[in-house]
Design brief:
Length: 471
């Protein structure tokens, strides 16, 4: 009787130990199986989950615009006063809803494609119509002295500016400012040039690319990383490492993302590669994501972050490369004095912020972030936020700019391009990816905990029984 009881207790302990060991063994085995499945589905190849999400976005992407309206135009024009700005918006457009075009699989483990540019106005998501009028900078007049520095040419430009009755400021509809209008000053210039201009002109019907990215078939760690942009590894806009095309396009990253990683991605909107660092965890529609944000250091001055030295182009405007928070992208805008910053000059030097009135930088509203599912590397939620500015400079030979007292950076608008995974895609993702991983993790824990409890309980009972027998 005692033997049966002791044997039973030992058998129970052995079963518990086996269960605990089996649960422990499941960890590397399960991780291997998960890794194998993810590697199969994360590569950019026809028939994989990654390919369908890569070919056409799995969620609606919207680009919201807030335009800056000048509230004191008379003082700015007549006295050279600081502009008082009021943001108006959002004016919302649906973008990135067309599939990639000219998709070509290459023999070197890469795939090439073009991104079609399209923007469709969404009135229900906007504060007004595209025909709302604002007072803003005159793009052509302000850009003229930067494009033509010769005194004689500026005198000619001044003649045409006056003949067109143009000034430093103008009234334009939101649609005109964004997508283009025929400029009266440019229309007066007796040379063959396109008189139409706008902040994003031309856009609809154009393409971004050619992109060439690694599929991940040969090396999963290279999945979605850009091999070349417009058939080049360099941009030809910057010097040194700043000119390299680094990382992915931000829509996805190689799988198995770690918190201590720096996620690098290229943005043609700002003509450079940039990066995000881990900020924290987010839960989006039942899926656990890692949030990576573009840090303040990415736009810091070279005086603070030495690696940013090659983004400093004009030592006069940048005050010997000590100004933070603005990026001169004139080299990739055909010489037009375009400067990019975060909205409301977030993280910019005080001198930049105080050259205009009415801005209120707020990290929560104005920072850029990517929410990445760490197992697959897919970006399931993001907000890309940036501000478009023009450099305004004194130009004594151009009467429309004669009241400008010093060079300063003038905000035109800021945008928020954002998306979040749709409900149907989120359910599919939970069922095919995160749900299975969580189920395996739960099974591992249940087996280990149950087995350990059984082992300890039966072994404890065995020793108690044995001690009573010895007494």
């Amino acid at each position: 009787m005692v033997c049966n009881r002791n044997c039973g207790l030992l058998t129970g302990a052995v079963i518990g130990a086996v269960l605990a060991i089996f649960g422990g063994v499941l960890i590397p085995v399960g991780d291997h199986l998960i890794g194998k499945a993810i590697k199969k589905e994360a590569v950019i190849a026809n028939g994989t989950i990654a390919f369908e999400n890569w070919r056409v976005p799995g969620s609606s992407v919207y680009r919201q615009f807030w335009v800056f309206h000048v509230q004191n135009p008379s003082e700015v024009l007549d006295q050279g006063a600081r502009p008082k700005l009021e943001q108006r918006g959002p004016y919302t457009y649906r973008v990135r809803y067309l599939p990639k075009e000219n998709i070509t699989e290459n023999s070197d483990g890469t795939i090439s494609y073009m991104l079609p540019n399209i923007a469709h106005f969404e009135p229900d998501m906007s504060v007004g119509t595209e025909n709302d009028t604002i007072t803003c900078l005159n793009l052509a007049v302000v850009a003229a002295p930067a494009l033509y520095t010769n005194t004689f040419i500026q005198l000619l430009l001044n003649t045409w500016i006056k003949a067109s009755k143009s000034s430093m400021l103008q009234n334009r509809t939101v649609k005109e400012l964004l997508w283009g209008y025929k400029d009266p000053f440019l229309n007066k210039v007796p040379f063959p040039l396109d008189p139409v201009l706008g902040v994003f002109y031309p856009y609809n019907g154009t393409f971004d690319g050619l992109y060439k990215v690694y599929t991940g078939k040969e090396d999963i760690k290279k999945t979605a990383i850009i091999e070349s942009y417009k058939n080049k590894r360099n941009l030809s806009y910057w010097e040194g490492h700043c000119d390299l095309v680094n990382g992915t396009d931000g829509a996805s990253f190689p799988p198995f993302v770690k918190k201590d990683q720096v996620l690098r991605f290229f943005s043609s909107d700002i003509c450079r590669s940039i990066y995000g660092v881990f900020q924290g965890k987010q839960d989006v529609k039942g899926i656990s994501l890692y949030r990576f944000t573009v840090p303040r250091e990415a736009f810091a001055s070279p005086a603070e972050v030495r690696d940013n030295y090659c983004f400093c182009r004009d030592e006069v405007i940048s005050k010997n490369c000590t100004i933070a928070g603005v990026l001169d992208i004139s080299a990739c805008k055909a010489g037009r004095p375009v400067f990019i910053s975060l909205p409301h000059f977030l993280h910019a030097s005080d001198s930049v912020l105080h050259d205009v009135e009415g801005l209120s930088p707020n990290e929560k509203e104005h920072e850029t972030f990517l929410d990445v599912e760490p197992i697959t590397g897919f970006t399931l939620q993001f907000a890309k936020r940036l501000q478009v500015n023009l450099l305004v400079k004194p130009a004594p030979k151009i009467e429309a700019l004669s009241k400008v007292q010093k060079p300063y950076i003038f905000p035109l608008l800021w945008l928020n391009e954002s998306a979040v995974i749709g409900d149907a895609k989120a359910e599919m993702f939970r069922n095919k990816v995160t749900g299975r991983v969580q189920m395996l993790s739960v099974l591992q824990m249940v087996l280990m905990i149950t087995g350990s409890v059984l082992f300890l309980a039966f072994m404890g009972s065995y020793f108690i029984c044995r001690s009573k027998k010895l007494k």
